[in-house]
Design brief:
alpha+beta, Rossmann fold, OB fold (Dihydrolipoamide Acetyltransferase, E2P), 9 helices, 22% helix, 33% strand
Length: 392
Amino acid sequence: MVAGSFAESGADLELVGIHKRFPGFTAIEELSLKVPAGSFFALLGPSGCGKTTTLRLVAGLEEPTSGQVLIGGKDVTGMKPFQRPVNTVFQSYALFPHMTVIENVAFGLRRRKVDDPVAKAHEALRLVELDHLAARKPLQLSGGQQQRVALARAVVNRPALLLLDEPLGALDLKLRRQMQLELKTIQTEVGLTFVHVTHDQEEAMTMADTVAVMNKGAIEQMGAPEELYELPTTVFVANFLGQSNLFTGPVVESTGDTIAVDIAGTRIVVPTARAQRHSGIVTVGVRPEKLSLVTEDPGPAAGLNVIGPGRVVDVSFSGVSTQYIVEVPRLGTMVCFAQNMVFGPVVDVGASVWLSWKVDHGFGLDDVAEQAGAVQVGSAQDIAALDPEAVL
């Protein structure tokens, strides 16, 4: 069996020029990437972006229209699913209802005639904290428990590549967060290569070494979770991976270190190194938690962007932080997250406030937000009047 050549170790995954077309639409436009052996890789994106189709192509459940799938340097594009050194945990659990939990987990080991299949199955169940339910049938378990059994059954086979399609979707919030950490621990302990598909940004950032953000069948941006969050390069990534306050306007000054953008008469400065474009009409942004909210004008200060005064139109308590929605004349709506250091909100609805952030916390995007951000300044016609070439 092919999987034998990858025994007990992870293998790298490489997709080369993958296209996948179905009648009437294209699911994967152009996809090339490499996942290093032993890493935890996440494909993140909204429904319909092509991430699950990508997973099915790797598993052999779909054939690419063109391109290659390589696992451990071997071309497996033409191989059947059972010939690939891959195990998959899909959203559907696919457990054998007539078998007990322990029999389900040991099933693959018995087929491969692995020594001590039951002992290894118990070990896998302990990893997912379900060994005490080993004698039950799947229908006697909750949906979340069934998903964890499916995960144990996949991990126990030590595939070179483990594919996970929303594996924690059936779990409650507390257990999901616990399992996120446990999944990462399992991946580190067994040394497998994990490819995880999810639409949950927190889940991807918590577990993955590398995240690829997909949109419309292509990868918008790929990198370490911190890099994608702190320095998004497109409007889609800035808005999908967390929240962003975005501003669109012309660059009015460019130095070696910074660019200055005019936003309806307000000057916003961004480091040149953190901006994808340095001239013309650009979209710049800042994350809500980077903002400071004060009730008095802080005045101009080196290395600081200041906006205001604005009026607080909504206050939402979420435990760790409070979200403030601030309406700023001529600039629109801004979102600010403030950590809860005192009991109750710092300001109430109707308060007049100023918002500021360090220049080093801003970023500039490679495309222009016409209606994609928490802040929309000017219509598309206004922007086109400044630079007709700039409206994408």
